[in-house]
Design goal:
Length: 399
């Protein structure tokens, strides 16, 4: 009961804080709403004709498709065979959705507290094949009648507020290393590896068996403590970012991941990506991140039981990041996006290749055909064959 009350309090706190201004006299704030579980499950779910997004959330690529989440509304589906001219082909309405991952033509997506599975082998005729009830309980109140608490963007006249907090119920999806799966960004809270879907909530790691892709089953959850933010899979390990550090789990036994260590840092927001024997962690101020720290940390994980920092670089307000070969692409929020050569990870600070200051960036995927960046005004795609000279290929604008 105490945990439920704490969740409700946090969402009520989130609900009065603004996100961005649309006009000089107006702004968008998050208003907390309540819905019964019974009413939630009666909301329509399914594919419809393509529509423009009003806001972008998490991004995911699967084969030639680019999937763009619109928080709490659903998923916009683009044919991205030609990144210079992506085609909006459908909208999959999923109330309460903020996360997604795909394996063997099955799309996994959250709908408030439930996990849904969709067959997307035919994008013009997407079918829901499974619903697992009550598997995500962070924003949940129990009693005689069960209720959910969630936030919705609402346009109001400007007022003054004293803080800024991100939506704490956000999830995401990360790249996979098993089966025919897709690739997500570094803000991931969903990931697929070794026939399992792993999800992280605010305080736990969830495990789902997806050996039969169209019929996922809930296995268990592992308590991680408060402040869990992201998850990244690499070499049969799970790297879990929290606002106080990075947990490393051995997932060789996929159904029973074992914690190897925790790399601790100051209280700050913390996405992480891994390549080879190094993890790259960004820490930033803002949102729940109370410290005045904006930096990129390089962590030696050759011995995953004893991670150690080998380098630290000051940044402006780092968010998501992605690696391709010897190049690191780092989102700097309102300060743009940067590319670095990381062949010498002890000299990254002096090896910045480019800084695009006009793109307000949140997360990035270095995909097989393009560098995909979520920005304030939409989803950008760049040709990154030359990391010193990113060339814009397209922009999917928000409405």
């Amino acid at each position: 009961m105490k945990k439920n009350l704490l969740n409700v309090f946090l969402l009520l706190f989130v609900g009065v804080l603004f996100t961005q201004c649309k006009k000089d006299e107006y702004e968008v704030i998050k208003i907390t709403k309540m819905i019964s579980v019974e009413a939630m499950r009666a909301l329509p779910v399914g594919v419809s004709k393509a529509i423009e997004a009003k806001k972008t959330g998490k991004i995911y690529i699967y084969n030639d498709y680019l999937l763009i989440n619109e928080p709490y509304e659903g998923i916009h589906i683009y044919n991205n065979a030609n990144p210079s001219s992506p085609v909006n082909i459908a909208f999959l309405k999923i109330p309460g959705n903020v996360d997604l991952a795909v394996r063997n033509n099955i799309l996994y997506a959250d709908s408030f507290i439930d996990l849904l599975a969709f067959d997307i082998s035919n994008m013009s005729s997407i079918k829901q094949v499974k619903r697992l009830n009550d598997v995500f309980k962070q924003v949940y109140s129990t009693g005689v009648q069960k209720y959910l608490y969630y936030t919705k963007d609402t346009v109001v006249k400007k007022q003054r507020y004293t803080g800024v907090v991100d939506d704490i119920s956000a999830y995401s999806s990360s790249s996979s290393q098993s089966g025919s799966s897709g690739q997500g960004g570094s803000m991931a809270r969903f990931t697929l590896m070794n026939d399992y879907l792993y999800t992280v909530g605010m305080y736990e790691l969830g495990l789902f068996d997806v050996k039969d892709a169209s019929s996922p089953s809930y296995v268990k959850s592992i308590n991680l403590g408060w402040g869990v933010e992201t998850i990244f899979p690499y070499d049969n390990k799970l790297f879990i970012g929290t606002n106080t550090g990075m947990h490393i789990f051995n997932a060789v036994d996929a159904a029973n991941p074992v914690k190897l260590s925790t790399y601790s840092h100051v209280f700050a927001c913390d996405p992480v990506v891994v390549q080879g024997k190094y993890a790259y962690v960004t820490l930033r101020t803002g949102t729940f991140c109370r410290q005045t720290v904006n930096q990129l940390e390089v962590v030696d994980i050759e011995d995953p039981t004893k991670p150690k920092q080998v380098a630290l670089y000051q940044m402006q307000n780092p968010h998501g990041l992605s690696i391709s070969g010897n190049n690191l692409f780092l989102c700097e929020g309102n300060f743009g996006i940067k590319s670095f050569n990381i062949s010498d990870n002890k000299a990254i600070g002096s090896n910045m290749l480019q800084h695009l200051q006009t793109v307000k960036s949140f997360d990035v995927i270095a995909g097989p055909k393009s560098l995909i960046v979520t920005g304030e005004d939409g989803v950008y795609q760049f040709n990154y064959s030359n990391a010193s000279n990113l060339k814009q290929m397209s922009l999917i604008k928000v409405k």
